[in-house]
């Protein structure tokens, strides 16, 4: 008789190395991904590596009330330069996030395994997508995990084919999340782009308090 392997929980995030790497291996089951995000952990790896799980310290976050909207972006929003929808074409969003070229990055961490796993979470209403359209063409978007009970949104990836498209969608979505009572948006690690939008680094311990 074969016995099922018991589910192995993640080690405490304090065990992560200085870069934030906490564990490797496991799978991308719905159960494991939800366990990860609810404890401040996320997967990030490429096709040549095992699944790597991260919990960096400090943590890049955006408090919705601190969102910075530049004068030029305010003008674009006022003119309704783009159309924004939610959860209308998740697969197109994640496919574009996977193939978009990024400075200093070869290949993608959004493997077929990642796409399949997050599609399952999307069908459960946990992964949300934002689509940005111009003349009926998808020109930008983003997706992430919405922990509704915790009032936290964990951003995963965004893309833009047209200047300002992803920023436009991000600003609109942050305002929507704020109206829904979301207190924090997880941006994972520092980038100048996110910093320009008002995101900042906080200690991991402080971030985890929002998840409790």
What would you say this structure looks like, in words?
With 212 residues, the protein is an alpha+beta fold. It folds into two domains: 42 residues, Leucyl/phenylalanyl-tRNA-protein transferase, N-terminal domain (Alpha-Beta Plaits); 153 residues, Leucyl/phenylalanyl-tRNA-protein transferase, C-terminal domain (Aminopeptidase). 32% of the residues lie in helices and 25% in strands. It contains seven helices and ten strands. Strands 5-6-7-8-9-4-10 form a seven-stranded mixed β-sheet, with helices on both faces. It has a three-stranded antiparallel β-sheet with strand order 1-3-2, with helices on one face. This is Leucyl/phenylalanyl-tRNA--protein transferase. It is found in: Cytoplasm. One of its GO terms (cellular component) is cytoplasm. Keywords: Acyltransferase, Cytoplasm, Transferase. Belongs to the L/F-transferase family.
Question: Outline of this structure?
Answer:
Pfam families: Leu_Phe_trans. By secondary structure, the protein is an alpha+beta fold.
Describe the secondary-structure layout.
Elements: E1 21-24, H1 30-37, E2 42-43, E3 52-54, E4 59-62, H2 71-79, E5 83-86, H3 90-99, H4 112-123, E6 127-134, E7 137-147, E8 152-160, H5 165-179, E9 184-188, H6 192-196, E10 200-202, H7 204-211
Parallel strand pairs: 8-9
Antiparallel strand pairs: 1-3, 2-3, 4-9, 4-10, 5-6, 6-7, 7-8
């Amino acid at each position: 008789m074969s016995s099922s392997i018991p589910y192995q929980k993640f080690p405490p995030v304090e065990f992560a190395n200085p870069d934030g790497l906490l564990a490797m291996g496991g799978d991308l089951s719905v159960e494991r991904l939800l366990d990860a995000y609810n404890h401040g952990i996320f997967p990030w790896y490429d096709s040549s590596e095992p699944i790597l799980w991260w919990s960096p310290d400090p943590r890049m976050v955006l408090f919705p009330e601190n969102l910075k909207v530049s004068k030029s972006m305010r003008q674009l929003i006022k003119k309704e330069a783009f159309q924004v929808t939610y959860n209308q074409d998740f697969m197109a969003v994640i496919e574009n996030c996977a193939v978009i070229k990024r400075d200093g990055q070869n290949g993608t961490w959004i493997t077929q395994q990642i796409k399949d796993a997050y599609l399952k979470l999307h069908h459960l209403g946990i992964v949300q997508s934002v689509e940005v359209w111009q003349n009926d063409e998808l020109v930008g978007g983003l997706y992430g995990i919405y922990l509704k009970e915790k009032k936290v949104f964990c951003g995963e990836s965004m893309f833009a084919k047209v200047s300002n498209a992803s920023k436009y969608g991000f600003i609109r979505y942050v305002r929507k999340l704020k109206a829904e009572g979301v207190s924090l948006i997880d941006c994972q690690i520092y980038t100048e782009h996110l910093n320009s939008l008002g995101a900042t680094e906080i200690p991991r311990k402080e971030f985890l308090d929002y998840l409790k």
